[in-house]
Design a protein that fits this description.
The chain is α/β, with parallel strands linked by helices and 238 residues long. It has one domain: Spore Coat Polysaccharide Biosynthesis Protein SpsA, Chain A (Alpha-Beta Complex), CATH 3.90.550. 33% of the residues lie in helices and 19% in strands. The chain has 9 helices and 9 strands. The strands form 2 sheets. It has a 6-stranded mixed β-sheet with strand order 3-2-1-4-7-6. The radius of gyration is 17 Å and the shape is globular.
Length: 238
């Protein structure tokens, strides 16, 4: 088991409760974190202590809570943010250099030097999240939050370090994988479940999924990946 005392595991959820707690359990199975902070609107069924919150109602309220409330609960130098469809898949891919960065997430597809990255599975430094929480007028919350932070605000934040793309590929994958045999510490996206889970493991999650999950675009994309694989092909761009 990895011992990462400088890293807090964070999950914020008022939907997909069981799936989020399964994702959290996967992370805790591989890593002994310095702390675990689970923000939810109902009692926990997994490890950790819940911090009770109210349902958000919309994405902007969820984003505001993440940006302005969560930082004050973090006591370690960095935090790993996970969601119901993201978790650690290969602990052997951990690199100490991840914690040299203020932000690291899966690379996107851009070629302009602002390609890192996705926030569905990401590490952020305490210094970065505290700074952004303290400067809401200069760096207002906007959607999609990770795109705005990493592509619009990043050039105005030279005091903080984003991971380079090579390191980010080691950390996580989402839309773009480094290659068919590529390995990463974690991932994000239900459409990637066929690459990290067996059919039986996918079924075990699907039976716990709510309408929120089953009606999502990500679920439809997963179905397309499975259909393509059964037909002997792979998803374009994978």
């Amino acid at each position: 088991m990895l011992d990462l005392p400088d890293l807090t595991l964070v999950a914020i959820y008022t939907v997909a409760h069981e799936l989020t707690e399964m994702a959290v359990a996967e992370c805790i199975r591989h890593v002994r974190f310095g702390d675990v902070k689970l923000f939810t609107d109902r009692p926990l069924r997994s490890q950790g202590d819940a911090i009770q919150i109210e349902p958000f109602g919309d994405q902007m309220r969820a984003g505001a809570f993440t940006a302005y409330e969560v930082p004050r609960y973090i006591r370690t130098s960095h935090a790993l943010f996970v969601q119901w469809d993201s978790w650690i898949v290969d602990p052997s891919m951990w690199r100490p250099q991840f914690l040299d960065c203020d932000y690291i997430g899966a690379p996107w597809w851009y070629r302009d030097g602002l390609n890192v990255g996705n926030s569905g599975f990401c590490i952020r430094s305490k210094a970065l999240i505290d700074f952004l929480a303290a400067h809401p007028a200069e760096f207002p919350l906007a959607s999609p939050e990770d795109h705005v932070l990493c592509r619009q605000y990043r050039p105005r934040l030279p005091q903080f370090k984003w991971a380079d793309e090579t390191l980010a590929h080691d950390f996580s994958f989402e839309r773009m994988r480094a290659g068919p045999a590529a390995r990463s510490f974690g991932f994000h996206g239900m459409f990637n479940w066929p690459y990290v889970l067996t059919d039986a493991q996918i079924e075990a999650r699907v039976v716990r999924a709510t309408g929120y999950v089953l009606g999502s675009q990500h679920c439809r994309e997963m179905g397309e990946v499975l259909a393509a694989r059964r037909g002997g092909t792979d998803r374009p761009g994978s």
